[in-house]
């Protein structure tokens, strides 16, 4: 398989309505904030990282050594707008792996698995499927999809899954732990995840 450069975007530009519109990525979980958990995994799987953030762009820029891009479109149009922004403002990207800030347990082999399947099948996009459930927000996109993405957003379409279908993305089954793609949308879910991890650590030790 040819060597390919894979960049990553941490999707942190949402409004976090179910968390009271606070900075979701800076909420603590087991000794680090959510964003740190995700970025730690991305560092091991990708060559460079970008952050998509809107309301809290300055906070991300101060805390992390990665380029931070607010959406080039207005009105919080969803993750596709953040992806479009990164592909537009960072033109040297070859492949872009997308990951929400509220999913701290992504598998360590996720990006290589998606890339291998996309290249093998000659596709420009791939996304994981875990336990029969598609995970489109953890998609891998080739930069060549940018014109189609822009046209899709211009047509006032927002669904990530439908966009992936429109570019014939490959669905990749991923065998991993049940919590690998869990997303933490509320403070209560954060605390439950923390207690679960604490209990798991005590059993293992």
UniProtKB/TrEMBL annotation:
A cellular component term, taken from the record's GO annotations: cytoplasm
Cofactor (UniProt): Mg(2+)
Signal peptide: none
Alphabetical keyword list: Cytoplasm, GTP-binding, Magnesium, Metal-binding, Molybdenum cofactor biosynthesis, Nucleotide-binding, Nucleotidyltransferase, Transferase
Stretches assigned to the MobA-like NTP transferase domain: 8-164
Its EC number(s): 2.7.7.77
GO biological process, one term: bis(molybdopterin guanine dinucleotide)molybdenum biosynthetic process
UniProt-recorded Gene Ontology molecular function terms: GTP binding; metal ion binding; molybdenum cofactor guanylyltransferase activity
Family statement drawn from the similarity comment of this UniProt entry: Belongs to the MobA family.
Annotated domain remarks: The N-terminal domain determines nucleotide recognition and specific binding, while the C-terminal domain determines the specific binding to the target protein.
Described function: Transfers a GMP moiety from GTP to Mo-molybdopterin (Mo-MPT) cofactor (Moco or molybdenum cofactor) to form Mo-molybdopterin guanine dinucleotide (Mo-MGD) cofactor.
Entry protein name: Molybdenum cofactor guanylyltransferase
Species whose genome carries this gene: Parasutterella muris
Taxon lineage: Bacteria, Pseudomonadati, Pseudomonadota, Betaproteobacteria, Burkholderiales
Gene name per UniProt: mobA
């Amino acid at each position: 398989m040819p060597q390919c450069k894979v960049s990553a975007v941490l999707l942190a530009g949402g409004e976090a309505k179910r968390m009271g519109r606070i900075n979701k990525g800076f909420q603590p979980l087991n000794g680090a904030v959510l964003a740190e958990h995700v970025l730690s995994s991305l560092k091991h799987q990708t060559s460079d990282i970008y952050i998509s953030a809107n309301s809290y762009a300055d906070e991300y820029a101060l805390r992390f050594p990665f380029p931070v891009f607010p959406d080039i479109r207005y009105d919080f149009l969803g993750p596709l707008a953040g992806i479009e922004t990164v592909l537009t403002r960072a033109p040297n990207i070859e492949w872009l792996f997308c990951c929400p800030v509220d999913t701290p347990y992504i598998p360590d082999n996720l990006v290589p698995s998606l890339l291998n399947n996309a290249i093998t099948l000659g596709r420009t996009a791939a996304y994981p499927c875990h336990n029969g459930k598609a995970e489109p927000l953890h998609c891998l996109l080739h930069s060549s999809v940018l014109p189609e993405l822009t046209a899709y957003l211009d047509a006032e379409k927002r669904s990530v899954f439908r966009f992936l279908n429109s570019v014939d993305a490959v669905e990749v089954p991923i065998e991993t732990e049940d919590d690998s793609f869990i997303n933490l949308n509320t403070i209560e879910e954060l605390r439950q995840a923390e207690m679960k991890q604490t209990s798991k650590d005590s059993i293992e030790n």
